[in-house]
Amino acid sequence: MLGVTCSPGREPTTHQIYHYFQHLIEALLFRHISPCVYARVFKRFECACQHAPRIMGMASAMRLCAIVTIVTLVCFGGAFAALCDGKGQQHTEALPGVLVNVDGNVIGLSTSAETVGNLVDILQIELDPLDRTNPSPGTKITDGMAIVVTRVECRETMREEAIPASTVVLADPDRPAGFTKILRHGEDGRVQRKWRIWKKDGEETSRAVVSEEILTEMSSNVVLRGTDGLPDRGGDWRRPLVMEATAYEPGPRSCGKWANGYTATGVKAEKGVVAVDDGVIPMGTRLYIPGYGFALAADRGSAIKGMRIDLCYPTYEEAIQFGRRDIRVYILD
Questions:
Q1: What is the domain count for the chain?
Q2: Which of 85, 135, 239, 254 could form a disulfide with 248 if both were Cys (CB 3.0 to 4.6 A apart)?
């Protein structure tokens, strides 16, 4: 970096002197080296000043010396005052040396800064609100300290994603083991999720779902599997409830004069809607009933208590024909 040296019997050229002053000013302005180093470099500065008037002319040399002196005083006036005593003798006490790791670069330097925060300010390292230093900004500088600046980013993004269809397996004790029948093909649902993503120095460290909105409900695949001869316990299937079943139609002959075609939960009464005791099966539960099909628990009845269920049929004749019987009821969700 130092473009000129003074050797006995050898004078620098005008180009070398200009080159020397240029690099000295750049180093001062950008603080590439510490004030201690500048104190030692001034010997060469004095040598250049001795030769400059004769080689460059007095006016040019004075202008260069004035520029370097002003920049030096502005940048390091306080530091040089601390380095020298009243007789102009340089102190030998060295400033603490530190390493600063920031944005993928490692900077080694000596500094008169008192704290990590002071040094970050001196180096003009801009910190965003989430950025962190280790050690913390209030930590006092010590010799050999390693300082790491971590860039922290948090952003939120919306993503529409699929909800894969699950599979529900229903056990049929009347069918032999190995029997399988697909009762319904499921469909994937869609959900819109808001993700919060954290990054450190550009690399993702974590993400979490902040909120989500179901756009399309997922429907499960439903498979009937024979379990005759298999142990009663274990298996990845759902076993049925055995319930006493009756049937009704939504008109006045089954429901009386108050019949209006709607259930106690406000759902239209039609085939596929059943009345249950919601202490046994909660309202809104989806069911599968062999011989009847898929159903929704959405109605109540004064006589429907405990392990009883009432199946809705579109006509009075179908309800009478069903009569009263024990049936298997599978709970899907």
A1: 4
A2: 254
